[in-house]
Amino acid sequence: MKWLITGGCGFIGVNLIKKLEKLGQKLRVVDNLSVGSVDDLPSNNWEIFDEVTDLKKISWKKKQIFTLDLKNKKNLNYIMSEADYVVHLAASTGVKLSVENFNQDFTNNVLSTLNLLEAAKKQSIKKFIFASSGAPLGFQKPPIHEDKPLSPKSPYGASKMAGEGYCSAFSGSYDLNTTILRFSNVYGPGSYKKESVVAKFIKDCICNQKILINGDGQQTRDFLYISDLIQAILLSTNVKKCGEIFQIASGKETSIKELSKIILDNLKNKLD
């Protein structure tokens, strides 16, 4: 099968590519390298393009990376041509940054998603998988599930809600087979560039710095290991119903205080 992955040089994308390579899948990546790096990919035999000037060079026989911005849809039809699955991971993910610059957040997250959906519709791909999060839900009392009403509290949450809406609309209006996956707090190997609480606590321990907890530490999160998320992405290709939404999570609440203790206990002996 042929996979087009946006944001493929990021934490989740790299782990997904590693799995797909083992399965012998054909791969193509679009990433503007604003966060990720080609050096993070599990193998080094990639062709890199910063623009599409000769369509004859684009071949699924080779692994190719296009360092293009998704806001420019000029080349997306060519890049997506003959793809079976599109996994849209690329996004601006910072809540704080979205508050500071909501126009940029809209352009990066909503306009880019719409451009991809338009290209996917034209190319009649088999499946469009959209990476969402819990942000469209806002502040909700656990347990979180797909029937909870949406109430985003940040521009980032609103942009993800809009992306979900467009995926649903393209399924309803154009029969494009989309699946929406709401990722919980993902952690695991390769997350060294992430600003998540797990990554931050580990970095603090490695650097022999104090772990700082805001509040009393009783606030809880659902933490999802990266390999479980990758498995969920692969399984989502089998979903027949268009526009289906899935919460991808462990189903277990862990307090920030408990998390800090787990990390400290596990790293203490290794760092001494």
Describe the 3D structure.
The protein has 272 residues and is an alpha/beta fold. Helices cover 38% and strands 18% of the residues. It has eight helices and twelve strands. Strands 3-4-2-1-5-6-7-11 form an eight-stranded parallel beta sheet, with helices on both faces. The protein has a two-stranded parallel sheet with strand order 8-10. Strands 9-12 form a two-stranded antiparallel sheet. Helix 4 (102-123) runs parallel beside helix 5.
Summarize this entry quickly.
The protein is α/β, with parallel strands linked by helices. It is built from eight helices and twelve strands.
CA distance, first residue to last residue: 47 Å
Q: Give the number of DSSP strands.
A: 12
Low-confidence stretches: none
Would you list the SSEs in sequence order as H and E? EHEEEHEHHEHEEHEEHEEH
The average pLDDT value, as a whole number, equals 90
Class of secondary structure makeup: alpha/beta
Radius of gyration: 19 Å
Strand order of the largest sheet: 3-4-2-1-5-6-7-11
Indicate the overall shape. Answer: globular
Structure annotation, total helices: 8
Largest sheet: 8 strands, parallel
Q: Helical content, roughly? A: 25-40%
Features:
272 residues, alpha/beta, 8-stranded parallel β-sheet, 12 strands
How are the secondary structure elements laid out?
Layout: E1 2-6, H1 11-22, E2 26-30, E3 47-49, E4 64-66, H2 76-80, E5 85-88, H3 95-100, H4 102-123, E6 127-133, H5 155-174, E7 178-183, E8 185-187, H6 197-206, E9 220-221, E10 223-225, H7 226-236, E11 244-248, E12 254-255, H8 256-271
Parallel strand pairs: 1-2, 1-5, 2-4, 3-4, 5-6, 6-7, 7-11, 8-10
Antiparallel strand pairs: 9-12
